[in-house]
Amino acid sequence: RDIERDLPRALATEQLYMVFQPIMGQGGHRLTNFEALLRWDHAKHGPVPPGDIVEIAAVLGLSEVLIQFILRQSGVLIEKLRGLGQNELWVAINVSPREMSRLPIDDFVSQALKQWNVPSSMLEIEITEETAMDTRAVQGKLAVLRQAGVRLAIDDFGVGYSSLSSLRNLQVDRIKIDRSFVTDLMASAADRVMVQAIINLGRSLEIDVVAEGVETEDVKVMLQSLGCSTMQGYHLGRPGSLQQAIEHCRVK
Ligand code: G
Ligand code: G
Ligand code: MN
Ligand code: NA
């Protein structure tokens, strides 16, 4: 496909870029961090989903180049935050199960942190339940990252096959409740029960819980009443450019 053929050039131009979405704590009122999200605006095909980009990169043998690009772009924001004295904020990047197993992510991250010269707590890695349950080699890399002080979050929590085991297996800082449980919170009593259970679980294990996909004020208020204080979603802030991210933390 011509999309595959075009990735190397996209990597070298502005076609491929990162956007940054704010994640808000204290009931949605205070910025905790940004999630870095990959974007590719293809001249002919329009936006290419990030999962496809990661897959195409793997096919072309460009996985390392892609992850280094993501780290570099995220590092620009991290260094800016540090420069603004906002050391307690951080940036989260997504790493897929395959990237985590095939690449020495732990080495890449420690090299990046050395170059940036910022606290390792200013970087978070979002992994899935599948990654948390992966081979001993993957577990080893995650342990190295944790040991180095990098934050770990389990993304899309609740939709995998091993939600509870993934928490027993691995010490994480954060659970991100999959947005499929959050979006219809007002209409669905069953979803409210699930979300409440995950919030209680997080509280018992002393793991920070984030609700994803908060799209309305109603859902935000409902989450507050369920005891969930950290949120992400279009209602709190859309993914934006580096410049918009910096503006965002100036006003918050
Ligand atoms: O940003 P968007 O809603 O299009 O993201 C869709 C999916 O792609 C999400 O599951 C998200 O975690 C994933 N994703 C976004 N950016 C990246 C990235 O830089 N690397 C990887 N591996 N996945 C990403
Ligand atoms: O799987 P992951 O959580 O990394 O996916 C993040 C994706 O969710 C991003 O691509 C982002 O664009 C998308 N997203 C962020 N906030 C919302 C929201 O409020 N509603 C919906 N539908 N998607 C969102
Ligand atoms: Mn994510
Ligand atoms: Na998610």
Automatic annotation (TrEMBL):
Domain of life: Bacteria
Domain named EAL: residues: 1-252
Protein name: EAL domain-containing protein
Organism of this sequence: Ferranicluibacter rubi
Lineage, highest ranks first: Bacteria, Pseudomonadati, Pseudomonadota, Alphaproteobacteria, Hyphomicrobiales
